[in-house]
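Q&A log
Question type: sequence-to-structure
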Amino acid sequence: MSDFGAPPVIPVELQQYNSYVEDPKWQAKFSYIWAGIVAAAILASVPHVVQSFLNRRLFRGMITGVVEHATGKHYQSTGTNDIVPTHTKRRISGVVQTLASTVLWTLPGVELNLGQMLLVGGYLALVIACITMNIDLVTYPNRAGFIALAQLPIVFLFGTKNSVLSLILGPGNGYERLNYIHRWSGRGLFVASTIHGALWIQNHLVWGLPIIGQQKETSGVAALGVLCALILTSFRPLRRWFYQSFFIVHVLGYVAFFITICYHTTYASPWIFPPLAFYGFDMLLRLFRYRIKDATLVPVDRNMTLIHVHNCNDGWLAGQHVRLRVFIGARVFESHPLTILNAPPASSCMPSNTITLAARAVGDWTRAINAYALAEQERLRSEKRGEGEVADAPIQVMIDGPYGGCSIDLGQHESVLLVAGGSGAAFTLGMLDDLVARCTRLGRASGERTRRIEFAWCVRSYGAVGWFAPRLAELAHACAGSSVDLHVSVYVTAACAAEGVPFVRNMEIVAVERPGVMRLLREFVAGPMGRHGAGQKMAMDTDVESVSAESLSDDGCGRLVPGSEPPVWVGLGGGVGVCAAGPESMTREAKNAVAWIGLTRGVELGGVALHTELFAM
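Response status: OK
Response body:
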């Protein structure tokens, strides 16, 4: 056979685009970029992970969940270990936290702060770039479909409650802090899928091809329809008001999407396995964390129910929450997140073998619990314990967790401001319990620097003060005579009678005033003598059981009961830690306040760190 030489080479500009060869390369590029960003975040979290390991907070409860030890774990104090940071360390810490505070700015009505918006914007820009670069997308719309598949691992990595990433990043980086990436990556997946589907439908219409009929086209349209249902039902109003329906649609929807997308294209299978692995890991850890426990319901009033879960003395951190399921009729099918009110016995001022949860009666589920507790309490009082005794309502519950927690170590800051709105005090009380115990009972064994704590709580009525007043009183008593200056400010935002307000040492109540977090933080960093707000105040520096409106006298300066201010405190520049828990308006104010104070005085103060706990879906 004669040799005609090498075959001719087609010029690049004349070569036909091979979608099934080129588009997977863009999938790989997209995956390398987002994986690199995640790796950078992991490296940045190494100091936090190391500090958590040294403080015995790393992986606490993440694997085994809440546990009960036969004798309980109690860390012994090693004596006072009061570490004063050097000037260089203070300055470095102040600069780092000042830079970090600049990304906290948040706009009203926007769920994301500036840093999160930049991250989401960069992510969506990456998606669009990988879809549109170096391709005639109208002619070859497969690129968008390939990029849609490449986003499935991100959606599940940041969407599962027990995420591998949460374990690696350390305490305080649970699913509730990473979930915004899950939502926006899901929307990025929807955008890419819609581009792919819309262009294919357009091409079929141009060439007169049937859209429904063949397996590939039919399964593709079905997958896009399922994805549309998932996106539409996950919008914020539907997610908050119809959560149970949203959850059912979400679980059934992604199963249907996986099935239809695998029928649509054989290229989907490799991208299905990582999400299944992430979800399987989540389910496995949940099996280790589920606990069925005896509990008692204590209705403080018709607006608050305390739930004491017995035989629990380890496996959680202060500020974490569990998902609770109560065995009451049809309510057994519902589980809701509730913050743990107390710190574990190892770091609590009031050690006990119980977990205490606070359920404010604001929804159908919490109202049903409160009504059941009141009815059961009345029944037990009349049948078993006599008319004059108060009986708690026994019940069985299932807990799943713990989850979440504080992303900053308050013990590393010399000044700590805790701000709460309503039942958000459950989070700040747990943090206060842990912090006071570490600074007093445990003798600053881990080098805690905290000297001054301001606990600010906004409530609608004087009666709400009684929800947590006994715990506040115990914590205030623990600080008496110690090196920790604790001041409690309660702001009653509705005009009502001041009757039967419990006594708490060093507490003042400000009537008919809802202060901004910016004002609270400014007064706090100015020192104790800068704390003078408008409104009618009553100070609790005298040993009385309760204060009523009739027993108060005005001293001419707006203070109803005279009390002495704590002594002027001089800080060592160890930084300011701020925790805010409550409605979105409060957490947004806290972010903006810390961003402003950190930018203007961050280096001087040694840095201002923030953790917010939003009580919303």
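Response note: Residues 103 and 118 are 9 Å apart (CA to CA).
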